[in-house]
Amino acid sequence: MDSIARKYSEQFKKDAVVDVKSGDTVKVHQKIREGNKERVQVFQGLVIRTDNKSSHTSRITVRRIASGVGVEKSFLLHSPLVVKVEVTKRSKVRRNYLTYMRTRTGKAARLTGVDFDRSAVNTLPEAAVPAVEQAAEPASAEAQADKETAEATA
Length: 154
Known about the structure:
By secondary structure, the protein is α+β, with helices and mostly antiparallel strands. It has one domain (2-128): SH3 type barrels (Roll), CATH 2.30.30.790. The chain is built from three helices and six strands. Strands 4-3-2-1-5-6 form a six-stranded antiparallel beta sheet. Strand 3 and strand 4 (69-76) form a beta hairpin. The longest helix is centred in the last third of the chain and has 23 residues, at 131-153. The radius of gyration is 21 Å and the shape is extended.
């Protein structure tokens, strides 16, 4: 029974997700739909909580100060509405839930930064492209080349 539930939850997971930890400052790119238009909105803040890291319901809670008011948003990492998560700063913390940061303001709200390889953390491994798509790419490249030569001669 457990394997059936695991297979079902695995089909809803994204292929690769950035490894986000508590204490990271992140930019979360989220799709917002307004009427019939769709745009991407960026929410930048401190990750104060991570939940269920290995599950398809993995969630991060991001906090920022907007116009002097603390705003917290919770994001499902495997949601199709979350386009990209980018780690901009990594800090040294000793716990998973940073709820004490809600009461801190000013200099007391600073965390000690840690050096990390930003490009290595933010680049995701490429998913294995099926052979059918790989075979289709050269054909489309040839069609594009034929189109360019036709335009050049015209």
